[in-house]
C-alpha cells in the first residue's frame, strides 16, 4: 500500500490558517502545518543553507526539515518575488541530498503567479480537484486573507493602547478559529463583520497625539514576526501606533494595480521600478512623510538586493522630508539586545522631536 | 559644436557591453572617456558612496561613477530590467539608474531595456540616441554597425579560447563568474595573477557560444531564471569536460549567486572551488586557497 500523502508548507505569520483551510477544502490529502518557528528551526535551516543566502530561505528550509520529520511528504513552496522564485529548486535539491523523500510543488514558477499556473499546480498535486471547487474556494480564501489583513491593520493601530492585556490577541485567535469553520462567502462575511464590531468595542486608552510609525521593507521580514524578532510587538509595548503596508492582500492584487500611480507619486526620485518591493518602499517612505508620521522603520534580511538598491533613494526621500528613519537588517544571528537598544534609542529620539 | 563627452564607468555592465557601447558612441561621433582599472582610490570612494551590504561589484561601480563625475558631460548608466523574455536580472541593474541619479548630482544618459515590456535593445538605443539629439537615421546605422562589431569581437574571443583548449596540455582552470567580477582588478584579476604565476591556462566562462545554452543550463538548474547566471551555468556545463577544475568567482554578498552557486557546487563532477571576494580580502588567504586548489588538480593529473 502506498503511504498516505501528507501535505505541508512553510510558515508566514498567521497565513498558515487560510492556506491550510484551502488545502483542506480542495484536496483529499492530509494537511499539516510546519511546527511553529523556534530558534531550532532557524538553526536547522542555516546549517544546510548556502552561506550568504537571505534569511527567509533559511527559515523556509528549517520549516521544511521540521515538517518532513513530522511525516509530511508533499511540500509546497510559494515562490515569486526576487530570490524567492528560485528558492524552490535549490531547497528541493538540498532536501533530496539530505536523503528525504517527498514530492515538491512550486506555485509560482519563475516569474509571476497567474490563476492558470496556480490551477495547474494544484491539479498536479491532486488531479481529482474539480475546477468549480478550486475557483470557489480560492476566491473564498483570498477573501479570508483580505479580512484578516483588514483586521490586522486595525490591530496595529490600536494594540499598543489596550487597557486589558492581550485583549486584542485573544480576540484575534478566536476570530481566526471561527474563520476556519466558515462554509461559504456569506458565513465568512458575517463572521468578519461580527468580529470587526467586537474589535472596535475593545477598550483602549489612546492619546490623540500618540507616536505613529510606519514599517516598510522586505516582505518576509515584514510578515513573519519571528524573523523580525517580534518588532511590532516591541513597538506596541512602547505605545506606538503602527502602520505596515506589506501583507498578502497587497502582494496578491494591490501591488500591480498601484504600480503606475505609486511611480508617479515619487517621480522626482524614480523613473523606474527597482524589482521586488524596492519602488513600493520608496513610495511608502514619501507617503508616510506626507501623512505626518513620526518615524519610519525599514526592515530587511541581510543582503536583500532589491532593498539595498532602494535604501539610498529612501534615505534621500527621508532627508528631503526631514523624516527620522532607522534600518534593521536581520540575519540568523542578529543580536536581539542589539535590536532592542537601537529601537529604544530611536523611540527616545522620536519622543524628543515630538516634544 | 563641441563634441559631447560620455563617461563610461569601467565596472559592472561595461564588461558585458563595452564593444557595443564604445563603437555605438564612436559611430555617432561622441567623445568617450572610460574610467581606469579599479584602483585603491576608486575602491575607497566606492565604499564611501555605498551601503555596507552592497555587493563588492556594486561598490566598485560607485567608485567608477565618482571618478568620472567631473571629467565628462554625461555618464552612461543604463537600466536593465529584462533582456530575455520571462527571465530576470539582478535587481541591482533595474535600480542602477535611479540609484546613481539620487546619490550623485550629475547628468546621466541612459537606456532602458525591458524585453518583457517590449522595450528591446534597438528601441532602447534609439531613445537614448534621440535624447542626445542625433537623427533617427544616424542612430540606427550606428547601432547596427556596433552590433556587428560586437558579434565579430565576441566570435574572435571564443575561437581564440577554443584553440587554446585544443593546443595546450597545461593544467586548465575555468574561471567562472560574472564578467565584471572576472576582469576586475580587485576581484578576478587577483586570482588570475596567481594562476598565471603558477603556469596555469585560464579559460573564461564568458567566452562561450550560447548556441546550446538552454539545454546546457537544464543539466544543472532547469528553473534558473537569471539571464546572466544562466550564462555562467551553461558555460560551466559546456567546459567541464575540457578543464581540470573550476574556480567560481563571486562578489560578496551577491543575491543571485548565493542560490545559483549552490546548484553548481552540488552538481559539478570535477574539482570546483568558490572564491567569495569582499573588499577586505587579504591577499594571503586567497593565495593559499588558490594554491591548494592547484595542488589538488596537479595531484589528479599525476594519477591519470
Ligand atoms: S548579480 Fe551579484 S555581483 Fe552582480 S550586481 Fe547583482 S548582487 Fe552584485
Instruction: Specify the number of helices of chain A.
Output: 14
Mean pLDDT of chain B comes to 95
Largest beta sheet: strand ordering of chain B:
2-1-3-5
Global outline of chain B: globular
Question: How far is the first residue's CA from the last residue's CA of chain A?
Answer: 72 Å
Radius of gyration of chain A: 21 Å
Fraction of residues in β-strands of chain A: 5-15%
Which spans of chain A have pLDDT < 50 for at least 5 consecutive residues? none
* String of helices and strands of chain B: EHEHHEEHEEHHEHHEHHEHEH
**Helix amount of chain B:** 40-55%
Biggest interface reads: A-B, 43 and 41 residues
Beta-strand fraction estimate of chain B? 5-15%
- Sheet bearing the most strands of chain A, described? 4 strands, parallel
State the order of secondary-structure elements of chain A, H for helix, E for strand. EHEHHEHEHHHHEHHEHHEHEH
Spatial order of the strands in the main sheet of chain A?
2-1-3-4
The overall average pLDDT of chain A, rounded, is 93
- What sort of overall outline of chain A do the alpha carbons produce when their principal axes are compared? globular
Small molecules bound in the structure, each named once: iron/sulfur cluster
Relative helix content of chain A: 55-70%
CA(first)-CA(last) distance of chain B: 67 Å
Total beta-strand segments of chain A: 8
Describe this structure in words.
The complex is a heterodimer of chains A (355) and B (304). With 355 residues, chain A is of the alpha/beta class. Chain A has helices at 16-26, 39-48, 55-69, 84-97, 115-125, 131-158, 167-180, 185-201, 219-223, 231-237, 248-265, 278-290, 305-320, 336-354, and strands at residues 6-8, 30-31, 74-79, 103-108, 211-217, 240-244, 295-301, 325-330. Chain A has a four-stranded parallel beta sheet with strand order 2-1-3-4. The radius of gyration of chain A is 21 Å and the shape is globular. Chain B is an alpha/beta fold and 304 residues long. Helix content of chain B is 52%, strand content 14%. Chain B has a four-stranded parallel beta sheet with strand order 2-1-3-5, sandwiched between helices. A four-stranded parallel beta sheet of chain B has the order 8-7-9-10, with helices on both faces. Chain B has helices at residues 14-27, 40-48, 56-68, 91-103, 121-131, 136-167, 179-182, 188-197, 213-218, 227-239, 255-267, 283-303, and strands at residues 5-8, 31-34, 74-76, 79-82, 108-109, 112-114, 172-176, 201-204, 245-251, 272-277. The interface between A and B is large, with 43 and 41 residues. Iron/sulfur cluster is lined by residues 55, 57-58, 90, 92, 178, 251, 254-257 of chain B.
Amino acid at each position: 500500500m502506498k503511504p498516505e500523502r501528507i501535505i505541508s508548507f512553510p510558515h508566514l505569520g498567521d497565513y498558515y490558517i487560510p492556506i491550510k483551510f484551502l488545502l483542506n477544502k480542495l484536496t483529499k490529502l492530509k494537511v499539516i502545518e510546519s511546527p511553529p518557528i523556534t530558534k531550532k528551526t532557524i538553526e536547522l535551516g542555516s546549517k544546510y543553507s548556502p552561506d550568504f543566502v537571505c534569511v527567509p530561505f533559511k527559515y523556509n528550509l528549517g520549516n521544511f526539515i521540521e515538517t518532513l520529520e513530522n511525516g509530511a511528504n508533499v511540500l509546497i513552496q510559494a515562490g515569486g518575488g526576487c530570490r524567492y522564485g528560485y528558492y524552490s529548486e535549490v531547497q528541493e535539491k538540498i532536501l533530496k541530498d539530505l536523503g528525504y523523500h517527498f514530492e515538491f510543488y512550486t506555485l509560482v514558477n519563475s516569474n509571476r503567479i497567474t490563476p492558470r499556473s496556480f490551477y495547474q499546480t494544484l491539479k498536479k498535486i491532486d488531479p481529482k480537484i474539480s475546477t468549480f471547487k478550486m475557483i470557489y474556494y480560492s476566491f473564498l480564501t483570498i477573501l479570508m486573507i483580505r479580512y484578516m489583513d483588514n483586521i490586522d491593520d486595525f490591530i496595529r493601530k490600536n494594540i499598543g493602547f489596550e487597557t486589558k492585556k492581550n485583549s486584542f490577541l485573544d480576540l484575534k485567535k478566536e476570530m481566526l478559529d471561527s474563520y476556519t469553520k466558515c462554509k461559504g462567502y456569506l458565513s465568512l462575511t458575517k463572521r468578519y463583520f461580527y468580529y470587526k464590531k467586537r474589535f472596535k468595542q475593545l477598550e483602549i486608552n489612546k492619546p490623540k497625539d500618540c507616536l505613529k510609525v510606519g514599517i516598510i521593507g522586505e516582505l518576509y521580514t515584514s510578515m513573519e514576526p519571528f524573523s523580525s524578532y517580534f518588532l511590532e510587538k516591541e513597538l506596541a509595548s512602547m505605545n506606538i501606533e503602527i502602520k505596515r503596508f506589506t501583507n498578502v492582500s497587497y502582494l496578491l492584487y494591490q501591488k500591480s494595480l498601484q504600480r503606475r500611480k505609486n511611480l508617479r507619486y515619487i517621480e522626482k526620485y524614480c523613473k523606474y521600478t527597482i524589482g521586488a518591493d524596492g519602488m513600493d518602499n520608496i513610495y511608502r517612505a514619501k507617503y508616510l512623510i506626507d501623512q505626518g508620521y513620526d518615524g519610519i522603520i525599514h526592515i530587511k534580511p541581510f543582503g536583500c538586493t532589491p532593498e539595498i538598491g532602494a535604501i539610498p533613494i529612501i534615505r534621500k526621500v527621508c532627508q528631503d522630508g526631514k523624516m527620522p528613519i532607522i534600518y534593521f537588517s536581520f540575519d540568523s544571528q542578529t543580536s536581539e539586545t542589539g535590536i532592542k537598544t537601537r529601537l529604544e534609542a530611536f523611540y527616545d529620539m522620536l519622543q524628543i522631536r515630538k516634544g | 559644436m563641441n563634441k559631447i563627452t560620455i563617461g563610461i564607468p569601467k565596472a559592472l555592465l561595461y564588461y558585458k557591453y563595452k564593444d557595443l557601447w564604445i563603437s555605438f558612441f564612436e559611430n555617432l561621433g561622441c567623445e568617450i572617456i572610460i574610467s581606469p582599472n579599479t584602483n585603491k582610490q576608486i575602491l575607497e570612494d566606492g565604499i564611501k558612496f555605498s551601503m555596507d551590504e552592497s555587493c563588492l561589484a556594486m561598490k566598485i561601480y560607485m567608485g567608477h561613477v565618482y571618478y568620472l563625475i567631473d571629467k565628462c558631460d554625461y555618464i552612461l548608466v543604463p537600466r536593465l530590467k529584462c533582456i530575455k523574455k520571462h527571465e530576470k536580472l539582478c535587481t541591482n541593474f533595474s535600480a542602477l539608474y535611479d540609484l546613481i541619479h539620487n546619490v550623485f548630482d550629475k547628468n546621466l544618459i541612459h537606456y532602458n531595456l525591458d524585453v518583457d515590456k517590449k522595450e528591446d535593445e534597438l528601441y532602447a538605443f534609439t531613445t537614448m540616441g534621440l535624447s542626445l539629439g542625433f537623427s533617427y537615421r544616424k542612430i540606427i546605422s550606428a547601432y547596427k554597425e556596433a552590433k556587428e562589431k560586437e558579434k565579430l569581437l565576441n566570435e574572435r574571443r571564443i575561437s581564440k579560447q577554443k584553440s587554446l583548449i585544443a593546443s595546450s596540455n597545461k593544467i586548465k582552470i575555468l574561471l567562472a563568474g560574472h564578467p565584471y567580477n572576472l576582469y576586475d582588478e580587485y576581484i578576478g584579476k587577483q586570482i588570475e595573477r596567481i594562476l598565471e604565476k603558477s603556469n596555469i591556462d585560464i579559460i573564461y566562462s564568458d567566452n562561450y557560444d550560447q548556441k546550446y545554452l538552454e539545454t546546457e543550463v537544464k543539466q544543472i538548474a532547469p528553473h534558473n531564471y537569471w539571464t546572466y547566471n544562466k550564462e555562467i551555468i551553461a558555460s560551466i556545463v559546456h567546459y567541464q569536460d575540457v578543464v581540470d577544475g573550476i574556480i567560481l568567482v563571486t562578489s560578496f554578498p551577491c543575491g543571485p549567486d548565493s542560490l545559483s552557486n549552490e546548484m553548481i557546487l552540488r552538481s559539478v563532477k570535477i574539482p570546483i572551488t568558490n572564491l567569495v571576494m569582499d573588499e577586505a580580502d587579504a591577499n594571503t588567504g586567497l593565495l593559499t586557497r588558490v594554491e591548494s586548489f592547484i595542488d589538488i588538480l596537479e595531484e589528479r593529473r599525476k594519477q591519470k
